[in-house]
């Protein structure tokens, strides 16, 4: 029988970048170059109106060649400009023109190379157009309500065995009276063009440094994953941040050669060395440093903000303002954490499998802890020399991240920190543990669960809650980093 704290660490070990990915085992995330093989090259989309390329099935589905028609599909960015390529986490409107007013037009979407699909039917407006930014679909599609992202996040795998996908390029087909009348492709890379990266091993660090294509120096962010360990979580975040215009160092802090094997006794000084390395780079503005982490990494991000005065912005996803276990040390001493762990609940998923819900175990641990124990384990977030952004899901079934974030928010409010810096906490209804800014634009109608140590764990939430939370948190992150670091 595993100990409670060991189970805690295992239960928070996500198969994707911890702190958020709506796509467990999704192969689009930035890989750990030391252990992963590169993705095969993705062929270019076919020209608009031509048959699908040989790498994608043409079985009468989304990728089929359309019947000749005046109907045209275009993609528009947030400024209303027509695009054929756009970074995956930016919202893209699907606009149809040339259709008969009053007709019912069905839009179907499909990821290249994988059977992830969505569809929605719209009433064509008087000017012959349909707009996903301005219109809600008819009942019965894969999403409801006016939602520019609806066709994107509501894609679901047609094969239940699929847990990831090999491309984020998307084909959208328009259909009238059961006939395909238009087809368009949108190329959606996960990293912006020109982002540069290099591995870092200086001073015992295990990391990858990503810099934007634009000339620097840039504000910079230290990024790290959660209790999945290794480099993948931090590397994924850092690539995402560089695509947003920030220099970013993604690091492992345990579970890689030369680092602690487990999430136990990790010295904060190791992350302090990473901050110093980042500040010394010529591509970086040393006075504008932030940190970003998810889940146990969100716990770490809040600690670093409280300890290191050079940190001027903290982004914590599905975080905890309470330390758990004996994960962290500082100046040779273990940072006090809550050592209790309760009993998780179980449920049965749609496939009849037993799934563990860990949130009740954390709630029980808090209920059984003394006020003194809770106080000792609480991070003094009000010592942070800059604003804090916390993102969490109200339906988190892995741990109660909204409650844990509120512990931090209450301290910030009481100390006047929020009034000074404009701290933010966003708890998204219907979203679970995987809500994250870099999930925006990705399919969320997938099982919100993962396997570890032979057991199945629920992260909570549903597709719509996660899709809306991902999109809103991306917009919040953009605004937050712009005011905090730029």
Topology:
Blueprint: H1 4-11, E1 72-76, E2 82-83, E3 93-97, E4 104-111, E5 116-123, E6 130-131, H2 150-153, E7 156-157, E8 170-176, E9 179-186, E10 196-200, E11 207-211, E12 218-224, H3 232-243, E13 247-251, E14 266-267, H4 268-279, E15 284-294, H5 296-307, E16 311-317, E17 328-330, E18 333-334, E19 345-348, E20 354-357, H6 359-368, H7 371-377, E21 388-393, H8 401-414, H9 417-421, E22 424-428, E23 449-452, E24 455-458, H10 463-485
Parallel strand pairs: 12-13, 12-15, 14-17, 15-16, 16-21, 21-22
Antiparallel strand pairs: 1-2, 1-3, 3-6, 4-5, 4-8, 5-7, 8-9, 10-11, 11-13, 17-18, 19-20, 23-24
Question: Summary?
Answer:
It is built from ten helices and 24 strands. It has helices at about 5-10, 150-155, 230-245, 270-280, 295-305, 360-370, 370-375, 400-415, 415-420, 465-485; strands at about 70-75, 80-85, 95, 105-110, 115-125, 130, 155, 170-175, 180-185, 195-200, 205-210, 220-225, 245-250, 265, 285-295, 310-315, 330, 335, 345-350, 355, 390-395, 425-430, 450, 455-460. It has an eight-stranded mixed beta sheet, sandwiched between helices. A five-stranded antiparallel beta sheet has the order 7-5-4-8-9.
Written description of the protein model:
The protein is α/β, with parallel strands linked by helices and 486 residues long. The protein has ten helices and 24 strands. An eight-stranded mixed sheet has the order 10-11-13-12-15-16-21-22, with helices on both faces. A five-stranded antiparallel sheet has the order 7-5-4-8-9. A four-stranded antiparallel sheet has the order 2-1-3-6, with no helix packed on it. A hairpin with a 5-residue loop joins strand 19 (345-348) and strand 20 (354-357). The termini are far apart.
């Amino acid at each position: 029988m595993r100990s409670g704290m060991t189970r805690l660490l295992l239960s928070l070990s996500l198969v994707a970048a911890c702190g958020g990915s709506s796509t467990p085992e999704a192969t689009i995330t930035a890989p750990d170059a030391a252990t992963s093989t590169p993705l095969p090259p993705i062929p270019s989309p076919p020209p608009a109106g031509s048959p699908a390329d040989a790498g994608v099935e043409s079985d009468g589905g989304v990728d089929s060649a359309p019947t000749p028609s005046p109907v045209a599909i275009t993609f528009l960015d947030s400024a209303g400009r027509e695009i054929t390529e756009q970074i995956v986490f930016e919202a893209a409107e699907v606009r149809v023109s040339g259709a008969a007013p009053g007709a019912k037009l069905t839009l179907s979407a499909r990821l290249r190379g994988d059977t992830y699909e969505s569809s929605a039917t719209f009433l064509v407006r008087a000017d012959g157009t349909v707009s996903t930014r301005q219109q809600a679909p008819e009942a019965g599609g894969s999403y409801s309500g006016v939602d520019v992202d609806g066709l994107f996040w509501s894609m679901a795998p047609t094969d239940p065995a699929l847990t990831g996908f090999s491309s984020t390029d998307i084909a959208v087909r328009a259909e009238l009276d059961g006939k395909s009348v238009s087809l368009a492709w949108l190329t959606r890379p996960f990293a912006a063009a020109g982002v540069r990266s290099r591995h870092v091993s200086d001073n015992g660090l295990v990391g990858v440094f990503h810099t934007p294509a634009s000339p620097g120096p840039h504000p910079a962010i230290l990024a790290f994953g959660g209790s999945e360990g290794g480099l993948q979580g931090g590397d994924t975040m850092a690539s995402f941040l560089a695509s947003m215009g920030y220099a970013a160092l993604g690091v492992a802090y345990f579970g890689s050669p030369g680092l602690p094997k487990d999430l136990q006794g990790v010295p904060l000084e190791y992350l302090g060395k990473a901050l110093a390395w980042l500040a010394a780079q010529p591509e970086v503005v040393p006075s504008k440093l932030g940190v970003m982490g998810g889940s146990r990494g969100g716990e770490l991000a809040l600690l670093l903000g409280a300890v290191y005065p050079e940190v001027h912005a903290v982004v914590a996803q599905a975080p905890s303002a309470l330390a758990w276990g004996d994960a962290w040390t500082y100046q040779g001493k273990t940072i006090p954490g809550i050592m209790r762990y309760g009993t998780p609940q179980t449920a049965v998923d749609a496939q009849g499998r037993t799934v563990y819900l860990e949130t009740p175990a954390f709630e029980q641990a808090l209920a059984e802890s003394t006020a003194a124990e809770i106080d000792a384990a609480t991070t003094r977030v009000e010592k942070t020399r800059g604003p804090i952004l916390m993102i969490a899901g109200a339906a988190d079934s892995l741990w109660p991240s909204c409650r844990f974030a509120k512990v931090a928010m209450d301290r910030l409010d009481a100390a006047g920190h929020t009034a000074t810096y404009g701290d933010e906490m966003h708890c998204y209804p219907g979203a679970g543990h995987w809500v994250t800014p870099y999930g925006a634009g990705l399919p969320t109608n997938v099982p919100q669960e993962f396997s570890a140590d032979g057991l199945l764990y629920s992260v909570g939430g549903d597709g719509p809650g996660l899709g809306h939370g991902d999109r809103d948190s991306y917009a919040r992150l953009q605004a937050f980093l712009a005011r905090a670091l730029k």
